[in-house]
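Ribosome maturation factor RimM
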Amino acid sequence: MRKEDCFYLGKVVSKYSFKGEVLIKLDTDNPEIYENMESVFVSLGNNLVPFFIHRCRLHKSNLLRIDFEDVKDESAADKIIGSELYLPLTMLPPLEGNKFYFHEVIGFTLMDKVYGDIGIIKGINDNASQELFEVEKDGKELLIPISDDFIKKVDRKNRIIHIETPEGLVDLYLN
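Tokens:
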């Protein structure tokens, strides 16, 4: 399995018990839908390795407590601490309306109410406190906040996101 065919589910953040159980910090708004998984892909080096799950359950808010079939002691658990977990893109539940997955909108056009076509989404910057569309227009990069207040319509069929940015934001980049 290739990372390009998967989505990031979360990261192994700590051991839970001396029997090899680990805690996963999930990157999702709906952790409960991952409570009964049978397997995940664990990123080890440059490879995604399938790990089968004996038992998993929610632990507090967005943590998942997992007992992997082949991780049965603290030493084995130590080897996967910090590893990222992935699932195939086909396991993502479909979203409707103005909700979208970040990977889904790469290549979409951002259409502003005032400025019209302000560029193509090349990526999403989610490293700051505010997620940003990374948009390219005529060789310039625009950073547009991803905000429910700005997003007016997600048109999946035509691959366009209609937005209404605050006055002056687009001017910072295009003028």
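DSSP finds two helices and twelve strands in the chain.
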